[in-house]
Specification:
Number of domains: 2
Low-confidence stretches: none
Mean pLDDT: 87
Number of strands: 2
Strand order of the largest sheet: 1-2
Helix content: over 70%
Radius of gyration: 19 Å
Largest sheet: 2 strands, antiparallel
Number of helices: 10
C-alpha cells in the first residue's frame, strides 16, 4: 500500500510539472479566469477555444487537477512513511519536501491565474519549488524500493546529480533571461531563433543560460556513458540519452520551421529528461544493503 501511494505521488508530481510546461507553451494559464475552478462558458463546446495548441482552458484544468491531486498524494505518502520501521531518513523527509513544494507552486499558480504580477524571482521560486517537489518524490520512492538502503558515492551518481543541478539552474535562469511573452520562460532548452524575443531582458542571464545548457548537455552525455555498462542503470541511461537527443532535435526543428505547436512536445521532453536523470542519480546513489551483504 505504501509503495503504491509513493508511486502515485511520483507520477502525479511529474504530471503536474509536465502539464504546467504545456500550459506555458500553449499560453493557456489565463483561460479560466478564476481559481481553483473554471467558468462553464470557457469549458463548454461553444467556448472560446479555437485551437487545441493555443489558449485552451481544458489544458489548464487538466494541469490544475494533477497539481491539486499531487499534494494530497504526497501528504499521504509522508504520513505513511512516518510509520515505517528501518526506512532511510530520505523516505520520511522528502515527501514533506514535495508537500511544501506543491503548496508554494500552487500559491504562485493561483496568483498567475488571477492576473497578479509576478516578478522573475517569483517565477523562479515557483518553478524551483515544482522541480524540487518532483525530484524529492522520485528520490523518496527509490529509497523506499531499496529499503534497507544507504547512500553510496559513485562517479555515475555524482555526474548525474551535477547534470540535474545544471539543468535546474538553466531553467531557473531562463526566468530572468526571458523577454515579455517569450517562450524562454517555459521549460525548454535554448533555441537560437527565439533569442530575439529576449533582447529586452537581461543580456548576461541569456549568456549564462546558454552556457549552462552546453555544460548540462555534456554532463548528461558523460552520465549516460558511465551508466551504460551498469545493468541497474542502463534503462534510465538509455532514456536520458534518447530524451537529450529529442530536445536537441526539437530545438533544431523549431529553429527551422518556426512552429509554435512543437512547443508542447519540446517542453514535455524537457521535463521528462530532468525526471529521468533524477531517477538515474537516485538509483546510482542508493543501494540496498541486503544486496551488498549477499
Amino acid at each position: 500500500m505504501t509503495r503504491r501511494i509513493f508511486g502515485l505521488a511520483t507520477v502525479l508530481t511529474f504530471l503536474a510539472v509536465a502539464l504546467g510546461s504545456v500550459v506555458c507553451a500553449t499560453e493557456s494559464g489565463f483561460e479560466c479566469g478564476n481559481w481553483p475552478g473554471c467558468t462553464a462558458s470557457a469549458l463548454l463546446p461553444s467556448g472560446p477555444v479555437t485551437s487545441f495548441f493555443y489558449r485552451n482552458p481544458w489544458i489548464e484544468m487538466t494541469h490544475r487537477t494533477s497539481a491539486i491531486l499531487a499534494g494530497p498524494a504526497a501528504l499521504a505518502a509522508a504520513i505513511l512513511a512516518l510509520r515505517l520501521k528501518g526506512a532511510h531518513p530520505l523516505v520520511k523527509v522528502l515527501p514533506w519536501v514535495t508537500v511544501a513544494g506543491a503548496l508554494v507552486a500552487g500559491y504562485f499558480g493561483r496568483l498567475t491565474v488571477l492576473g497578479l504580477p509576478i516578478p522573475a524571482w517569483g517565477g523562479a521560486l515557483d518553478l524551483g519549488s515544482a522541480l524540487a517537489a518532483m525530484a524529492a518524490m522520485v528520490v523518496a520512492t527509490v529509497a523506499l524500493d531499496r529499503t534497507p538502503t544507504r547512500l553510496v558515492a559513485s562517479r555515475t551518481g555524482g555526474l548525474a546529480w551535477v547534470s540535474v543541478a545544471l539543468m535546474v539552474a538553466m531553467h531557473l535562469v531562463s526566468l530572468f533571461a526571458a523577454g515579455a511573452g517569450s517562450y524562454t520562460r517555459c521549460l525548454s532548452w535554448p533555441v537560437w531563433e527565439l533569442l530575439a524575443a529576449d533582447r529586452s531582458a537581461s543580456g548576461p542571464a541569456q549568456v549564462i543560460r546558454i552556457g549552462l545548457a552546453i555544460v548540462a548537455a555534456c554532463a548528461v552525455v558523460a552520465t549516460v556513458w558511465y551508466a551504460r555498462s551498469q545493468a541497474a542503470l542502463r534503462a534510465p541511461a538509455v532514456w536520458a540519452g534518447v530524451l537529450l537527443v529529442v530536445v536537441v532535435l526539437f530545438g533544431l526543428v523549431i529553429r527551422v520551421t518556426h512552429s509554435d505547436q512543437l512547443g508542447i512536445p519540446f517542453s514535455v521532453a524537457t521535463v521528462a529528461l530532468v525526471w529521468t536523470v533524477v531517477l538515474l542519480a537516485s538509483r546510482a546513489s542508493l543501494t540496498n544493503t541486503t544486496t551488498l551483504q549477499s
